[in-house]
Amino acid sequence: MWPAGLTCWRFGENAQTTYFSYDHRDLVTAIRYRDGTAQYFHHDARMRMVAMQDGGDTTYYTWDENGLNLLTERDAPLACRARARH
Question: pTM score, two decimals?
Fold first, then answer.
């Protein structure tokens, strides 16, 4: 497991770098791409991704009670984009 807040990198074309940040549970919390854009990932206490920020947009995720099956994907707290069937 990586120390909390550790940032790793991977070199790409023209020696430009993509950065990955991790939390104390070794979950990715942010990716900063070579073009300057970024994605941020938010997890709950059960290590499930509950939100992802991509540019100015945030997508929210809800899971079943066992935490294994994605139930909904929302682009706002009340606006459902997709509903999963299991």
Answer: 0.74
CB crowding 37-70: b at 16 or more within 10 Å, else e:
eeeebbeeeeeebeeeeeeeeebbbebeeeeeeb
Nearest to 25 by CA among 42, 38, 11: 42
**CA nearest neighbour of 27 among 9, 48, 13:** 48
Contacts of residues 61-64 at CB distance under 8 Å and 24 or more positions apart, as own/partner, are none
Instruction: Please tell me which residue, 4 or 78, carries the higher pLDDT value.
Output: 78
Q: Which residue has the tokens 């807040």?
A: 5
